[in-house]
Amino acid sequence: MRQSQAFIPTLREVPADAEVKSHQLLLRAGFIRQSTSGVYTFLPLGQRVLQKVEAIIREEMNRIGAMELLMPALQPAELWQQSGRWYSYGPELMRLKDRHERDFALGPTHEEMITAIVRDEVKTYKRLPLVLYQIQTKFRDEKRPRFGLLRGREFIMKDAYSFHTSKESLDETYNNMYEAYANIFRRCGLNFRAVIADSGAIGGKDTHEFMVLSDIGEDTIAYSDASDYAANIEMAPVVATYEKRNEPPAELKKVATPGQKTIAEVASYLQVASEHCIKSLLFHVDGRYVLVLVRGDHEANEVKVKNVLDATVVRLATPEETRQVMNAPVGSLGPIGVKEEVKVIADHAIAAIVNGVCGANEEGYHYTGVNPGRDFPVSQYADLRFVQEGDPAPDGKGTIRFARGIEVGHVFKLGTKYSEAMNAVYLDENGQAQTMIMGCYGIGVSRLVAAIAEQFADEHGLVWPVSVAPFHVHLLTANAKSDEQRALAEEWYDKLGQAGFDVLYDDRPERAGVKFADSDLIGIPLRVTVGKRAGEGVVEVKVRKTGESFDVPVADLIETVRRLLQG
Ligand code: 9G3
């Protein structure tokens, strides 16, 4: 492609609202433009990277026997009503009406759609297992779109779905997908970890997330410093054990704690350690209220609460709901004397509290000498807290450390969650109707482009791995006015193209400095500069990633480019 005819609107200045370097650079280098919050256009360079990433994904999906299809983004509400998710999802599900006032969703994912398709076409075990995938636009009305392509409201996902007659068959596909994902992320040059995203089962087996390690990642990975254990912090189980204080149970006392609301305030006011305090949080769980108790120095883990209660939607109660249900404000809540309708569940650490402190459900008052069991019932003890750095690793090896990651892939063993709801059954060898067993597997394709940019960019701009670069070679003349340089550049533009390389030729009448700066910004792996030594038939080849450069006689140019691109 000739840059004088290309559409690559580079920017000098850093866009104000772009906080992370991949977002800044993809905008400045003319790869993307924002249409509205969380909605982006892929300009030509961005589109070329997207296509290279998709090509890698297709190769690895096809290699494991997955078949590509393309489902509609416009999904009739009936599908979501059959699964019940029309009612359980909130404003994140983008809904619209057609001209006949019929309800639709813009697909955030396609479990319902694919299950309906397979249900209607597959009736016998002979047609299973079936592994289907698509690369398609998804819509999720994120509350806070941010970081450019990393969290958008319209984005491209590869989503695959598998259908099986047995758990063993699902396990086989799951493992194939797991390997295919590792191949994809490795071919994209990424430093990634597969982390257990399981609900508590140590050595988790039902779902894994693939995380690209990055300081700007929104997810926190809890990993062991002495094994390859790694889990999303939302799911990482806590295996710590707790010692009871050996002192006799004190009498329960209500004490005034004027204006003291947070655990820290109450603990310092009453001169007690925060681990002897009980933190009470009121949650709204599928329409009812649950008071969750965790130790004062721990944090409640909403995902664990959701999994323990097998709930669909869990959120903190609003201040109004809290006052209405507990007759007290946040900061004075406690488990003593709560209404029957409020279920009280507690993290395991609470069971070891002796003579603790909790809110008195009255503003400005707390209880001391609190003993669980004696002073309040707990309907269920469970692992409800976030794991912390220094906790013992769940696999018994080493201790937990934290790292941040960008989730780029997620694989699930779905089981019969959707096939049951949508009545996707097949007849087995004995003619008995059986419910299909499913798996689903996602990769954030547009997010992957940003994650690659984030991981490889340097202070000069983007740096693309050869496997996904928009072009292999950035060819340019140092002096746009020199006929000699232009002639040699034109000759090798053709020859490099004929040798099978994708070449971006900067033939613009710009100063060398502008061309070099734009070339560093765009991040094509190799730059070939036709400069002062054009008369001797010598050009400069520069490797973008390492900065090393060579003077190369044009006779060796093709071989040098081929060798350098192989890395
Ligand atoms: C919704 C909305 C947002 C959602 C979902 C549904 C995430 C939803 C989870 C998945 C699971 C897998 C297939 C590919 C891999 C991931 N956000 N998820 O189901 F209605 Cl608004 O998407 N789906």
TrEMBL record:
Q: Where is the Aminoacyl-transfer RNA synthetases class-II family profile domain?
A: 33-465
The record's subcellular location field reads:
Cytoplasm
The EC number(s) attached to this protein equal: 6.1.1.15
Q: Acetylation as a keyword?
A: no
* Reaction(s) catalysed (UniProt annotation): tRNA(Pro) + L-proline + ATP = L-prolyl-tRNA(Pro) + AMP + diphosphate
**A GO MF label:** proline-tRNA ligase activity
Q: Which UniProt keywords apply?
A: Aminoacyl-tRNA synthetase, ATP-binding, Cytoplasm, Ligase, Nucleotide-binding, Protein biosynthesis
Principal location class:
cytoplasm
Write one Pfam family the protein is assigned to. Answer: tRNA-synt_2b
Name the InterPro entries on file: aa-tRNA-synt_IIb, aa-tRNA-synth_II, aa-tRNA-synth_II/BPL/LPL, Anticodon-bd, Anticodon-bd_dom_sf, Pro-tRNA-ligase_IIa, Pro-tRNA-synth_IIa_bac-type, Pro-tRNA-Synthase_IIa_type1
Kindly indicate whether the keyword ATP-binding belongs to this entry.
yes
Q: What class of enzyme is it?
A: ligase
Among NCBIfam families, the record links this protein to: PRK09194.1, proS_fam_II
Summarize the subunit comment. Homodimer.
UniProt free text on domains: Consists of three domains: the N-terminal catalytic domain, the editing domain and the C-terminal anticodon-binding domain.
Function, in words: Catalyzes the attachment of proline to tRNA(Pro) in a two-step reaction: proline is first activated by ATP to form Pro-AMP and then transferred to the acceptor end of tRNA(Pro). As ProRS can inadvertently accommodate and process non-cognate amino acids such as alanine and cysteine, to avoid such errors it has two additional distinct editing activities against alanine. One activity is designated as 'pretransfer' editing and involves the tRNA(Pro)-independent hydrolysis of activated Ala-AMP.
Q: Which family does it belong to?
A: Belongs to the class-II aminoacyl-tRNA synthetase family. ProS type 1 subfamily.
Indicate what this protein is called per its UniProt record: Proline--tRNA ligase
